[in-house]
User: Which sequence fits this backbone?
């Protein structure tokens, strides 16, 4: 729409008429465009009920496959801003008793650097993006899916302890035998007798 | 309340300025409440007032909903759809919110003017509502000078706007008010000329009811509608009048007085709470008003195609059909206003002047002259 006469000289009759025609034409074109959009389907996703599909590579909130995790702390070290906090105790038999595997989403920039180095590939970026909380402290999210020690774990630990004990005993015995052998090599009857008693 | 009753009294007294030859009919003609003294006069007055207040507050609520949903669909959004079915109660909820908000009056504002300005703005529309004949008897005050009074009270609204801008003691508000003043003197000329054209084409009738009645009959009962009976001159006049009406209601592309991207909110920058909602109501009520006036002058009033005109002026069914047809046409024009708003960008002040003075006024004059010859 060009209502003014300034850009290209004075407003003559032909220009005046042309301006009117232009105005009507462009208005009709514009209005036909808007009415076309009026009859198209809205593209709205009504968010809490409907969610927009996200790309497969979307880097949302993390999820952890804790039963595979070997508690190697590599992810914790890889994170450039120290979001991940891992606390655990490793029991005999490689049973991990977890105390904490938390991620501070106050700081996290969703760079995925923690996920690449994981040796067993058990921490991933998920598709979930909504992290609405009433308080900042709630943004420190516990990723643990660990539900405490199970009977199986105790058995494993016990077995490991027993095995260790047995191994230790065996080792001790071996050592003793070696010692005895060493003693026997020496030319002393008393030592030999002592060694035999021990056996 | 007091403002509206004063307006109604004004309308009523103007309605009774008539010579003996004029057949004045009204919604309450049978009971002749206006003519009565004492209690019945009061009851009639209260009832008419209730109707006006009801229409004046329900219609804007509906239009705000249409505007929001319509603009939503034009933007490929859904628009408000949470409060009530299809979001119909959203405007009501907003209204309640506005009522409970603090009514702030700036410290350096001119208190009295600041306080009465919204009332004055609304008063014009309220008064004009009494004069709208939705059907041949569905009119509260059938004033013989109908269109003249409406043109007058529409200008009253401008005074309220300027008053609001001046009294706010705010640069943006005064700029908005000055723009409104400048805009008013430019759109009123073509508007007045188009009204004159309609009066000439309707045998010198100034009453909107007479105008509508005049458009009955003809080919399929549309032949006598002004835009069809005088297509060469009345149709452009209809378009010019509609553009002037857009400017009158301060709707895009003529929303310079409130241009929110330039002037915050223009003349009502300093208003809040219920006073702000008055301006808001006024905008949508006057959309209805000017659309209804356009319908009655150019689009055949209550006449429906294929339905004989006599059927619409008598009997209950006829009345209902007539009111329905007026409302449908009016709502269509209101929709066009909304549609235009979401299509065209706001034009500059000088462009408004150029449009009105250099284009609409000469065109309106041409149409006026042309239809003088057409009707002769
Ligand atoms: S995504 Fe990046 S910032 Fe977030 S925890 Fe992993 S490494 Fe740290
Ligand atoms: S890098 Fe993987 S295995 Fe290692 S602690 Fe992190 S999640 Fe567990």
Assistant:
């Amino acid at each position: 729409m060009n209502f003014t006469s300034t850009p290209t000289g004075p407003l003559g009759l032909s220009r005046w008429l042309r301006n009117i025609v232009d105005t009507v034409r462009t208005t009709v074109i514009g209005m036909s465009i808007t009415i076309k959009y009026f009859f198209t389907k809205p593209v709205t996703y009504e968010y809490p009920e409907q969610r927009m599909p996200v790309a497969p590579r979307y880097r949302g909130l993390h999820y952890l496959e804790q039963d595979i995790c070997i508690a190697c702390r590599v992810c914790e070290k890889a994170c450039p801003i120290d979001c991940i906090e891992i606390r655990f105790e490793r029991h005999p038999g490689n049973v991990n008793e977890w105390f904490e595997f938390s991620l501070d989403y106050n700081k996290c920039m969703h760079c995925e650097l923690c996920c690449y180095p994981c040796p067993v590939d058990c921490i991933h970026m998920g598709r979930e993006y909504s992290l609405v909380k009433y308080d900042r402290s709630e943004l420190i999210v516990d990723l643990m899916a660990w539900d405490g020690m199970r009977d199986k774990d105790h058995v494993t630990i016990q077995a490991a302890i027993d095995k260790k004990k047995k191994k230790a005993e065996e080792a001790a015995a071996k050592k003793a035998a070696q010692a005895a052998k060493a003693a026997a090599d020496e030319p002393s009857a008393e030592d030999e007798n002592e060694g035999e008693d021990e056996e | 309340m007091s403002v509206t009753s004063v307006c109604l009294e004004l309308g009523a007294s103007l309605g009774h300025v008539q010579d003996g030859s004029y057949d004045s009919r009204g919604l309450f003609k049978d009971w002749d409440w206006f003519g009565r003294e004492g209690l019945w006069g009061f009851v009639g007055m209260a009832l008419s007032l209730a109707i006006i207040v009801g229409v004046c507050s329900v219609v804007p609520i509906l239009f705000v909903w249409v505007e929001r949903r319509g603009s939503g669909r034009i933007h490929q959004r859904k628009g408000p759809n949470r409060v009530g079915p299809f979001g119909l109660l959203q405007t009501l909820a907003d209204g309640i919110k506005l009522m409970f908000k603090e009514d702030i009056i700036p410290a350096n504002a001119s208190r009295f003017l600041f306080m009465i300005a919204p009332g004055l703005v609304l008063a014009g529309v309220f008064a004009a509502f009494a004069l709208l004949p939705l059907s041949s008897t569905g009119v509260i005050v059938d004033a013989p000078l109908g269109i003249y009074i409406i043109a007058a009270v529409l200008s009253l609204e401008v005074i309220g706007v300027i008053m609001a801008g001046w009294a706010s003691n705010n640069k943006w508000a005064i700029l908005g008010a000055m723009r409104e003043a400048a805009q008013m003197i430019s759109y009123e000329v073509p508007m007045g000329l188009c009204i004159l054209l309609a009066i000439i084409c309707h045998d010198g009738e100034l009453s909107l009811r007479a105008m509508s009645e005049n458009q009955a009959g003809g080919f399929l009962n549309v032949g006598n509608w002004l835009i069809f009976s005088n297509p060469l001159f009345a149709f452009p006049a209809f378009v010019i009048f509609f553009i002037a009406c857009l400017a009158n209601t301060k709707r895009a592309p003529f929303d310079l007085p409130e241009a929110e991207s330039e002037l915050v909110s223009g003349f009502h920058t300093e208003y809040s709470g219920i006073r702000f909602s008055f301006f808001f109501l006024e905008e949508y009520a006057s959309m209805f008003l000017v659309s209804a006036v356009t319908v009655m002058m150019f689009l055949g009033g209550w006449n429906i195609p294929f339905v004989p005109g006599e059927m619409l002026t008598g009997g209950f069914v006829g009345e209902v059909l007539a009111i329905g047809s007026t409302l449908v046409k009016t709502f269509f024009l209101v929709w066009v206003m909304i549609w235009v708003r979401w299509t065209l960008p706001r034009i500059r002040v000088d462009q408004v002047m150029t449009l009105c003075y250099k284009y609409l006024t000469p065109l309106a004059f041409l149409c006026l002259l042309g239809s003088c010859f057409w009707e002769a």
Summary: Confidence is low (pLDDT under 50) at residues 194-199 of chain A. Residues 27 and 128 of chain A are 45 Å apart (CA to CA). Chain A touches chain B through 24 residues (CB under 8 Å).
